[in-house]
Write a structure and sequence with these properties.
2 domains; two-stranded antiparallel ribbon; rod-shaped
Length: 124
């Protein structure tokens, strides 16, 4: 919610609490002034309860964090491009057929729908 609205609600709640106390202190034994003071106190407490409830709702919302990385791939040796082929049917695979699932590379063949993990060969 807008911070200005929250600040005004808090200010109004403090005002109600203060005025309620003043009415109760200055009631001089008059029941109607005492009831007005109690009503103002209850109103101020309700406003602060609503503010607390709204704060808890706001804190319970998940926050979306977007991160971008500038990663440059490098290798210790000479890189050569190879055409990937499906292990099952031998069809050519493209980069759009690769997905990352739980940190591992998965390949799904668009022709035979075979899915398997892609393992990187050691460099030694």
């Amino acid at each position: 919610m807008n911070k200005l609205v929250l600040a005004l609600m808090a200010f109004f709640g403090v005002g109600l609490l203060f005025m309620g106390l003043m009415f109760m202190i200055g009631s001089g034994g008059l029941l109607e002034n005492l009831l007005i003071g109690v009503g103002m106190l209850v109103g101020g407490i309700i406003i602060f309860a609503v503010l607390l409830w709204m704060y808890k709702l706001e804190m319970a919302k998940p926050t979306v964090i977007q991160q971008t990385f500038n990663v440059q791939m490098g290798a210790s040796g000479k890189l050569e491009e190879k055409q990937m082929k499906c292990r099952s049917c031998g069809a050519p695979l493209e980069s759009k057929d690769l997905t990352v699932v739980q940190g591992g590379m998965m390949v799904k063949c668009p022709y035979c729908n075979t899915a398997y993990t892609l393992e990187e060969a050691p460099k030694w």
